[in-house]
Amino acid sequence: MFLLTYQPPREEKAMIKGCKELYTAIAMLKEASREKGKNLQMPGDGRYQPKELKAFLGYDQWAAWLIIVEWFWMKTLATIGVMPREDADLLTDELLSVLLLGITTTLQDAKEKEKGINHDILALLALMRLYLPEQLHRWLHFCGTSYDIINTAYALQLKVLFEEVFMSKLRELDELWRGKIAENASVLQPGRTHLQTALPVTVGFWLANLHNRFVSCSRKAASLAGEIPGKFSGAVGTSASQRALIKSKKGEKVLMEMLGLPVAKISTQITPPEGMARFYHELVLLSGALANLGEDTRILQSSQFGEIISDSSSSSAMSHKKANPIAAENVSGMHVTVIAEFLKVSMTLVSDLQRDLRWSNVMRSYSAIAVYVFQQILTAERLLKSMQVDTDRCKENFDQQGNVVVAELLHLFLQREGLPEAHHFVNKEVMPRTPSGVDLLSTVEHFEKDSAFAPISVEMLANLKSSDVVAYLKSPEKYIGDAIVISKREAKNKL
C-alpha cells in the first residue's frame, strides 16, 4: 500500500482546478499505474502508445477514474450533511489508495461477467465494497446512475490529461519552435503559392505562420479541456432521487467544485455532447497545424527544393537514394488518422430521448484522438530538433526566378502612374522579354523605344527610375515587406 500527499508545483496550482484532495487522488492514480502486470494499452494502434499518457489513458486505469468520482461523491455527501461524521471519518487517503491499487478495469470486466451482474458500474461497485468498511456501503453510489460516474470521469480524465501532460509537452515544443523562428527570422526563402515561386519571405516567416496556428489551437484546447462538464443528476437528468432523499440541492455543484469541473447546465442521463466534441475538435485543428508543418517540411526537404535538412530521416533503400523525410511524413499523415477518429465523435452526437446505449461502446475509444495527437506532438518535436536550413540553397532557389517575382511591384507602380491594363502589360510584354538574371527595370529601359512599350510615357519612366521601387527591382531579395518583423514578433509569442 502507498500513501502520497501530492503537492503540485506553483505554476500547476494556478492551472489545475479542484480541491487539494484531488491532487492526492491523481498522484495515487499515477502511482497505481506503475504496479506490475497492469494492462496499460491505450485506444488506437499499438505502434503509437506514448508512455507519458499511459497512467491516464491505459486500459486498467479507467477503473481508477471511476473510483475517484465515486469517492468524491461520498465526500460530497459528507460535505452537504447527508453522511454522518463517523462514517465520513472513514474516507481516508489510506482507504482511497487501497481502492486504486486493488481494482483494475480488467478485474472490473471479470466481475461484470459473473452471474447476476452484467453491468460495468455494478461490477465496479461490487469490487469497491470488498474494500470499503460496511458503514460506507450505503453511501456508495447513493442517488447516482452509471453515467453520472462515467460522464464525469471522462470530463475529469481529459482535463487532468491535458493540464498535466499535454501542456508541458506543448510548451516544450513551443520553445523549440520559437527558437527556430528567431534563428531564421532573416534567412531569405522563396515564397510559394501553388508550389510556384512567389514573393520572397524568410524561413522564420514560414515557421511563424504555422507556429501562430499551433499556439492558437493549443490555447483554445487548454481552455476547452476545462469546459467539459460533469453531471450528477440521475437517470434522466431531473435529480429526482436527490430531491426526494437529500435535503440539500447543492450536491452536484459541490462535487464538481471538488473535481474542478463545470456543472452541466442541463442534462439527460448524459451530459450534452458538445463540450467534449469541441475539445476533441480543437485537437483536430491542432493536429492540422502540426500536419501543415510536416507537409511543408516534407516538400522543402525534397531534392527539388533542398532547403531543409533533417536528421529525422531514414531510408530502407539503396545507400545512393535520398533519405526519406520520415518524421515530416509521419507528422503529416497522422492528421488523417486523427480526423478518422474524430468521426466517431461527430457521428455520436444524437442520443434518443433521455438516453440510449448505442454509442457507449464508441465512446470508450474517443481518447484515441488524444493518443494520436500527442504522438504527433512528439514527432514534431523530433522534427524541429533536427531541422537545419540550407541558406545557400534557399538563395539559389530564389535567384532562379527572383528577377521576375517583383513583377507585382512594377505593375502596381505603373497602375498608380495611370497606365491602363498595367497588370496585362507587365505580364505579357515585360516578363516574356526578361531573360534569367536580368531585372525588370533593365528590360523596360532596354525596350523603351519598342512599339510594344509605347504605353509607358517618358514621364512614367522617369518617375520609375527616380522612385524607391528601383531598389527592389534591382535587388528583389529586399522585397520582403514585414517578414522579419513578423518573425521576430512571433518568436516572442510564448504559449
Brief digest:
With 495 residues, this protein is mainly α. It folds into 3 domains: 10-145, no CATH class; 147-397, Fumarase/aspartase (Central domain) (Fumarase C, Chain A, domain 2), CATH 1.20.200.10; 406-478.
| Percent in strands | under 5%
From the alpha carbons, calculate the radius of gyration and give it in angstroms.
Answer: 31 Å
Can you say what the CATH homologous superfamily of the largest domain is?
Fumarase/aspartase (Central domain)
How many distinct folded domains? 3
Q: Percent helix among the residues?
A: 55-70%
Q: Write down the oligomeric state.
A: single chain
Largest sheet: 2 strands, antiparallel
The SSE order reads HHHHHHHHHHEEHHHHEHHHEHHHHHHH
Which CATH architecture of the largest domain is right?
Up-down Bundle
Tally of DSSP helical segments: 24
**Helix/strand/pairing class, anyone?**
mainly alpha
Question: Whole-number average pLDDT?
Answer: 92
Overall morphology: elongated
Please report the total strand number as a whole number. 4
Distance between the termini: 39 Å
